[in-house]
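Kindly review this protein for my students:
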Amino acid sequence: MCLHDVEPRMSPELVSRVDHLVYATGELYRGIAEIEQLLGIRASLGGRHPAWGTQNALVGLGSRCYLEIIAPDPEHSPSAGARPFDLDQDGPSRLVGWAANATELEQLRAVACRSGVTLGDVLSASRQRPDGTTLRWTLTDLCCVVADGIIPFFIDWGRSLHPASSATTGATLVSLRAQHPNAPEVREMLRAFALPLSVTTGPSPALLAEIDCPMGRVLLR
């Protein structure tokens, strides 16, 4: 969907916290084609996550922000449970969640718990880029979904290069907002993390990202 003459709605505070957006699709190259048609940019291959049974491709949205296209990896089954983001279920590709950058994840998890928000365990993960570089990071549990993905999971890249540094360039995230049937409750949860994400009441949960790209300003949801 193309947008014209739309003012950015994302505060500087939120800009500094958005690490990446997650676009889930049933097949990686199908998702790459969908995003290329929407943005006019072809995503670069990221790598595989054998423990989750997933693989990804990336489009940079800023110096430390990117869009992750994530799909099942037919060569790997998850080491435990189901794949994250409902990737084992049939359905249309869509924006299913987002990651906020953070440090001291165990402390953040404890603060969330005291506020009644369950983020799950803090986990370590890694993947190898196509050039052989190994990225390592810690994050809160992807399978612990809060408020239908409107509450982010949290990620700390530590000493690894940020994935945006090797992603395809040409796009910029200018706005991220959400809608949810229980918007006041979701806004209260976001306040526990000092995340100024705008959430309005809507018939179904949805993340909405406005992106400047070669196709103009488009809406991804």
